[in-house]
Design a protein that fits this description.
mainly alpha, 3-stranded mixed β-sheet, 13 helices, 3 strands, about 5% strand
Length: about 300
């Protein structure tokens, strides 16, 4: 099954989830309790059950057994930290622009995409995300390196170490995009005092999309994606969807693991479906209590 088709299904499901529900109280058989976000849990449950319940008529690259589902969920977890940017109403503008610029870059280098060391670009972008740069000293050093290169030398043809250095520096400079504030103004009509440019979020969006692009290139070249790769690739689409509720990372992943049979359920599949289908009230002032069933 193609990633595009999977994305279409996930997008359709995402639009059904709505609004912000209150916390649900999970009451265990030993009388201990735990509050959790029912919508995030149901969303993770639903997405993972989509894979589990795929009909045999749909071709997919591997069996969706417990082991492979665990790897897919581990792939989801790879990008889930980016939620803090995609769900922030200010940071998400820079984050989205970073993701868009990565797509534009990919389109511009289409003829050489299979020769690009994406891991080196990611290393540079992550230096921006993790605030590992000393400015302006590091950018001065990068500019001196770039100026020292022969004008007729294609970075793709460089020896591996030099090529990786070039693309790491390239990633840093892409993360420090000049004119980012102006791009945000052109996109939103908002000035810096309303939506300030956020280079960390911008570089994070760029890095997330570069991960997905690199896996797409890998797949196009005939290399079969592992379940983990598949999860990383799909998490990019999940993260970029405008969800009408705040997603709790921990509860989303807990719902994924429950649907895969890796964790004990806090809600039945039917209860998850009811939440996603808007059957629960808009806001639960009093927690709904779900009791764990006793087993003999």
């Amino acid at each position: 099954m193609s990633s595009a088709m999977t994305f279409a299904f996930l997008y359709m499901f995402a639009q059904e989830a709505w609004a912000e529900f209150g916390q649900i109280k999970y009451e265990r058989a030993d009388n201990t309790t735990e509050n959790f976000d029912s919508v995030s849990y149901a969303y993770g449950d639903m997405i993972t059950r989509y894979f589990v319940e795929l009909p045999d008529s749909i071709i997919h690259p591997f069996e969706f057994n417990k082991e492979n589902l665990a790897e897919i969920i581990r792939g989801f977890e790879e990008n889930i930290a980016y939620m803090k940017y995609s769900q922030d109403t200010i940071k998400n503008k820079s984050f989205s622009l970073g993701a868009m610029q990565a797509i534009f870059l990919s389109d511009g280098i289409r003829s050489q995409r299979d020769s690009i060391p994406y891991d080196c670009i990611l290393a540079g972008l992550n230096k921006v995300v993790n605030h590992e740069l000393t400015l302006p000293q590091d950018t001065i050093k990068i500019n001196e390196f770039m100026k020292s290169l022969p004008k007729d030398k294609n970075p793709i043809d460089m020896p591996d170490e030099e090529k990786c250095n070039f693309f790491t520096y390239f990633g840093i400079m892409k993360g420090l995009q000049p004119g980012l504030q102006q791009y945000i103004f052109e996109m939103t009509g908002k000035h810096e005092n309303e939506i300030p440019a956020d280079y960390e979020a911008y570089a994070a969006g760029f890095a997330m999309m570069i991960k997905g692009i690199s896996l797409g290139v890998k797949e196009e070249s005939g290399v079969e994606l592992s379940p983990y790769d598949y999860g990383v690739s799909m998490s990019t689409y999940i993260l970029m969807q405008p969800l009408p509720f705040h997603l709790s990372e921990a509860d989303f992943l807990d719902g994924c693991r429950a649907a895969a049979g890796l964790n004990k359920r806090k809600m039945s599949a039917e209860e998850s479906d009811h939440i996603i289908s808007d059957i629960l009230p808009y806001y639960n002032k009093e927690p709904i209590i779900i009791q764990e069933k006793q087993t003999d």
